[in-house]
Design brief:
The protein is an all-alpha fold. Helix content is about 55%, strand content about 0%. Helix 1 packs across helix 2. Keywords: DNA-binding.
Length: about 70
């Protein structure tokens, strides 16, 4: 696989969300003090760091969904 390519077979339900998710990834990494490789290759990163980024992204997405749901039922 070349740089920037992923082995993941996940497909975004909303393709336009890809850019927002990428931005969120960089924001979370910056907050955690973790540098994301410029070439897009994560193989040299510690599993602990990539897991921390993914975990924080998931938490943030759940918070956003909860806020949107709470707003619907007011």
């Amino acid at each position: 696989m070349g740089a920037g390519q992923s082995r993941s077979s996940n497909v975004l339900v909303v393709p336009q969300a890809g850019q927002a998710l990428d931005q969120l990834k960089y924001e979370v990494a910056q907050e955690l003090g973790i540098s994301i490789p410029q070439d897009g290759y994560y193989g040299n990163m510690a599993t602990r760091d990539t897991g921390a980024i993914g975990g924080h992204i998931t938490r943030r997405l759940v918070q956003i969904a909860e806020q949107q749901l709470a707003g619907q039922f007011k």
